[in-house]
Amino acid sequence: MGSLADVLDGKIEVPYEIIPHFPRSTVQGHAGKLVFGYLSGVPVVCMKGRFHYYEGYPLWKCAMPVRVMKLLGVTHLVATNAAGGLNPKFEVGDIMLVKDHINLMGFAGNNPLQGPNDERFGPRFPPMNEAYDKTLIREAKRIAKELGLENIVHEGCYTCLGGPNFETVAELKMLSMLGADSVGMSTVHEVITGRHCDLTVMAFSLITNKCITAYDSNDNPNHEEVMDVGKMRQDVLKLFVQSIVKYIKQTEDSINP
Ligand SMILES: O=P(O)(O)O[C@@H]1C[C@H](O)[C@@H](CO)O1
Ligand SMILES: Nc1nc2[nH]cnc2c(=O)[nH]1
């Protein structure tokens, strides 16, 4: 067992504390390390623990590791998250490939690209209508089928709220009307930052709980359940990401032999 970062070959772990100006992880279950190594022979860097707005960091700082990755030579970003399943067809433990997002915090003018634009990373006004790479979504669906995961892998729209509280029933009803299929507290600002600096991006949600949209429910979402489902699905997620990374490497090699 162990997370994806734990099974890299030739692993080098760098605690966030020793990286100058890097934020610190404050969330239970987020170790706070950048882990370098090889996944099926492909050089990768994994974040063991990410930064959230609710920890008190501004969005640009939450997403700063993406720029660090860009400067390290990373070309593809695979962002994963734990999320509540708003689409009633989703079950706990399912995977949702993100085909689009709703940047709710952006509606209120809060964006990781706010402030002076650093043209060395990307343009002032980046498009976001093709944020999630269509080829990677298509291939991820093919891979899911090959791995026998087609019944648990879906496609949908993710939305990020600031957190840390889970949503009210009325909020969830509203998000559902807006077209969101999963709800979380991360990823959107990382994806915006990644697309701004021209990374190829894919993302998926692990559905860790069903969103509660009925007032007569006695269930409560909680972080322990989120972490438990994450652990339960660890091996499947590892296999899935490993296969996607292998596919990316094969296509890159065929373009630049
Ligand atoms: O870091 P992610 O977005 O995967 O984690 C979600 C959002 C909160 O950090 C946590 C709530 O349990 O899960
Ligand atoms: N906002 C939000 N984040 C989550 N992370 C895991 N589950 C949930 C959820 O239901 N809502």
Automatic annotation (TrEMBL):
Record key words, sorted: Glycosyltransferase, Purine salvage, Transferase
Record carries keyword Glycosyltransferase: yes
Residues of the Nucleoside phosphorylase domain: 13-245
Pathway: Purine metabolism; purine nucleoside salvage
A Pfam family this chain is assigned to: PNP_UDP_1
EC number: 2.4.2.1
Catalyzed chemical reaction(s): 2'-deoxyguanosine + phosphate = 2-deoxy-alpha-D-ribose 1-phosphate + guanine; guanosine + phosphate = alpha-D-ribose 1-phosphate + guanine; 2'-deoxyinosine + phosphate = 2-deoxy-alpha-D-ribose 1-phosphate + hypoxanthine; inosine + phosphate = alpha-D-ribose 1-phosphate + hypoxanthine
Family in the record: Belongs to the PNP/MTAP phosphorylase family.
Self-association and partners: Homotrimer.
PANTHER family given in the database record: METHYLTHIOADENOSINE/PURINE NUCLEOSIDE PHOSPHORYLASE (PTHR11904), PURINE NUCLEOSIDE PHOSPHORYLASE-RELATED (PTHR11904:SF9)
Protein name, entry field: Purine nucleoside phosphorylase
